[in-house]
Structures are given as structure tokens and as C-alpha cells.
């Protein structure tokens, strides 16, 4: 049976150098539940090292946590990637780490904190997560597609780190499932500005880096289960699944 699911699929944890230290599993899950969300996705910059902790914390409270990542291509384009299986998300991480140069300088870029499901700090990551990978956006989207994952172009209404901001257009044939609109742009304005790309589904998420921002910008999906497979079907209007009017 299909049902409406409230989703915020773009949340950063304390692993992202731009994320607040408060963005730990229990705290994020509690805030998501308080906002009435059915599912969230943790999408840290170029890493999924905190995914296990967040999925475990979510499972204990009955909240679906989708494993994901916000990858930066060599063109400095941000792409949201979502998976059903943690192993597939970590396979993407392996590819990213092989193509991610540089080491983090905490004093300049910020802390990159690893935590467990009890919000306890267990280490830091030395990779320069805020940097760009050596992979093109087509390579990233193609690899995600080969794992049956979901690829969404992040905040296309922004100039910085967006597909349209960097390229000025969306190439035909790219393995792209949807387009994210930030909270800065209304749905009506987005439909006018991006009418050329109306064949894509538009989604809205919080891009939260602080607890208070979780759930402030969400998308309602009509689907059967809280899985990335169902998200993909909804983005492509398959089997009665869909992205509902915002």
C-alpha cells in the first residue's frame, strides 16, 4: 500500500567539516522524530564513515536512515547519492577516497569527527573531505547507477557547487534521478526558472548543518516503503510512486 512519507534526505553530520559538532546520531535522530519525519539521509561531504552509527541510532528509534553521501566532482559540482545497502555506499566511498587528494587542516577547514551510535567521539578523519574529487560528475553518477543507487543534483538554484552554476546546463544522457532546490527558492520560482528541466522531479531538503535546521525543508513522497529503491521509483513516477506537490 502506498503512503505519504516525509523525508529530509540532505543532512550533514559532525563528520563534514562544515557541520556542527552537535550533529551526532542520537541528537539528529531525536530532532528528526520531533519534526515528524519518516526518513532521513546522512550525506556528508565525500565520506560515509559515520553512516553505521546513524543507521543504528535510527533503527533503535524506528526512524529510517538512508546511507548516502554528498560527493564533489572535479568540476566542483555537488551530487547527493543515496543507497539501500550500506555496502554500496561504502563502495562509493572507496572510489572517492582513491580519488580525493589532500589532508585536512582542522584549523582552516574544521573538524571531521567520527562518532558511534551513542554520540561518543571515536576519532577523526584526515582526508580533505571539503575538497573536490578527481572524478567527473558523469563518472560519479554512472558508478552510483551501476549500484542501483540514486543521484540527485544538489541545490541547483545556487551558483556555487551546483550543476547549473558550474556548467550552465544539464547534459543529455546523464544518469541523474532528480534535482534539489534549496530553501532560498520557492517552488513557484523554481518551476519558472527551471522549466526547461521540468521532466526531472524537483525535491527539497534542509541541507542541515545544525540541529535546528533539520526538517525545515522537506519532500513528501508517495511510496510503499522508506527505501532508496522506492525513492528512485517516485522520482521517475513509476508504479504509482511520485513526488507530491510541495
Strand and helix map with partners:
Blueprint: E1 3-11, H1 25-34, E2 39-42, H2 51-61, E3 64-72, E4 78-82, H3 86-98, H4 106-109, E5 113-115, E6 121-124, H5 137-146, E7 150-153, H6 163-167, E8 178-181, H7 187-193, E9 201-204, E10 219-223, H8 228-235, E11 242-243
Parallel strand pairs: 1-2, 2-3, 7-8, 8-9
Antiparallel strand pairs: 1-10, 3-4, 4-7, 5-6, 10-11
What does this structure look like?
With 246 residues, the protein is of the alpha/beta class. It has a single domain (3-243), classed as Alpha-Beta Barrel (TIM Barrel), CATH 3.20.20.140. The protein is built from 8 helices and 11 strands. The protein has helices at 25-34, 51-61, 86-98, 106-109, 137-146, 163-167, 187-193, 228-235, and strands spanning 3-11, 39-42, 64-72, 78-82, 113-115, 121-124, 150-153, 178-181, 201-204, 219-223, 242-243. Strands 9-8-7-4-3-2-1-10-11 form a 9-stranded mixed sheet. The chain has a two-stranded antiparallel ribbon with strand order 5-6. Helix 1 (25-34) packs across helix 2. The longest helix has 13 residues, at 86-98. The chain starts with a strand and ends with a strand.
Amino acid at each position: 500500500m502506498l503512503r505519504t512519507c516525509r523525508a529530509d534526505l540532505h543532512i550533514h553530520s559532525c563528520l563534514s567539516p562544515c557541520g556542527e559538532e552537535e550533529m551526532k546520531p542520537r541528537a539528529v535522530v531525536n530532532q528528526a522524530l520531533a519534526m515528524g519525519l519518516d526518513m532521513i539521509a546522512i550525506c556528508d561531504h565525500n565520506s560515509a564513515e559515520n553512516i553505521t552509527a546513524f543507521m543504528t541510532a535510527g533503527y533503535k528509534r524506528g526512524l529510517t536512515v538512508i546511507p548516502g553521501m554528498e560527493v564533489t566532482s572535479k568540476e566542483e559540482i555537488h551530487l547527493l547519492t543515496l543507497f539501500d545497502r550500506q555496502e554500496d555506499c561504502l563502495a562509493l566511498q572507496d572510489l572517492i577516497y582513491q580519488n580525493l587528494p589532500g589532508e585536512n587542516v582542522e584549523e582552516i577547514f574544521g573538524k571531521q569527527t567520527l562518532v558511534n551510535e551513542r554520540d561518543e567521539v571515536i576519532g577523526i578523519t584526515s582526508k580533505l573531505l571539503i575538497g573536490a574529487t578527481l572524478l567527473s560528475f558523469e563518472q560519479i553518477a554512472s558508478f552510483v547507477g551501476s549500484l542501483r543507487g540514486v543521484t540527485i543534483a544538489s541545490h541547483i538554484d545556487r551558483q556555487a557547487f551546483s550543476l547549473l552554476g558550474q556548467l550552465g546546463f544539464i547534459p543529455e544522457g546523464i544518469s541523474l534521478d532528480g534535482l534539489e532546490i534549496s530553501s532560498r527558492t520557492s517552488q513557484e520560482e523554481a518551476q519558472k526558472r527551471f522549466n526547461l528541466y521540468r521532466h526531472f522531479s524537483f525535491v527539497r531538503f534542509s541541507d542541515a548543518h545544525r540541529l535546528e535546521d533539520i526538517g525545515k525543508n522537506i519532500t513528501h513522497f508517495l511510496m510503499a516503503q522508506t527505501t532508496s529503491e522506492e525513492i528512485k521509483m517516485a522520482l521517475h513516477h513509476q508504479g504509482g510512486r511520485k513526488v507530491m506537490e510541495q
